[in-house]
Amino acid sequence: MLTIWAILIDGLIYASWLFLVAAGLTVIYGVMRILNMAHGSLYALGAYAAASSIGWYYASGGDQLWIAFALLAGCAIAIGAVAGLIMERGILRLMYGRDEVLMLIVTFALLLILEDLMKLVWGTTPYFAYQPYTALGRFNIGVLTVSGYQIMVIGVSVVVGAIMWFWLERTRTGKILRSIIHDREVSEAMGVNVRRMFTMTFVIGAVLGTIAGGFTAPIISVVPGIGVEVIVVAFAVVVTGGLGSITGAAIGALIVGLARAASIHTMPQLELFIIYAVMAAVLIFRPHGLFGQATARKI
């Protein structure tokens, strides 16, 4: 029973982190049909920005936890908005209408560029932002001890998911975005400024990626290469849930998180394998993912 309880808690914590990472990736693909490989670098940018700001704050004598969290979130959002705007306006806008494979190659090139740029700016020395993590302490859930910060990450992922759902399902802008998803040409013919919506969508997706990195920074050591590792796992999650579906990203993250936790507690040697085994098993029966929909062929 203890093992089952540990699998549930660890799986939920890991799933909440996976959803934060994958949400921006699936939003961008759903609206723009761009599989943004640079999303991993946006995650890393958020982590570096948060770690730098928190390290500076505590080194300068700060001791207010709420200010540290404000810096963490604020810096992650700011760098995500700026980076997303530059990437979309400066490069991706010139590629609209091209083959999706070409867009994949372009975003992969952006990932490599950003990885080297981060090394030039922050160097190769690890950055640590552990203060918010330790400040929230640990809590007992039954006989298990859980970090308060990780519980907070679960809450953040729930809030982000709720906001995204409300935005897409209950607001005028969300309805316009859904019309673009279903038929881009008809939306444009009805007067929708599709390019402006693309810019907004990409910036929001980029901000979601940097927020994920920012809230992860206190848990890990921020080093070069973390973005490359993350994009592979995020890709597995969104493919499992269905590319372009927020609900699919949430369910996919939950399935992958629980499967990984079960593997760690029962067969740790299969930890890496189990994520992709789950993805393969889903795709055998649902080629477009759990909540993905086949695109109608236009003639």
Question: How would you characterize the overall build of this protein?
Answer:
The protein is mostly helical and 299 residues long. It contains twelve helices and four strands; from the N terminus they run ααααβαββααααβααα. The chain has a two-stranded antiparallel ribbon with strand order 1-4. It has a two-stranded antiparallel sheet with strand order 2-3. α1 (2-32) runs antiparallel to α9 (194-216), α2 (39-59) packs across α9 (194-216) and α11 packs across α12. The longest helix is centred in the N-terminal third of the chain and has 31 residues, at 2-32. It starts with a helix and ends in a 14-residue tail after the last helix.
Q: Tell me the fraction of residues in β-strands, as a range.
A: under 5%
By CATH, the architecture is named Orthogonal Bundle
Shape category:
globular
Describe the sheet with the most strands: 2 strands, antiparallel
Low-confidence stretches: none
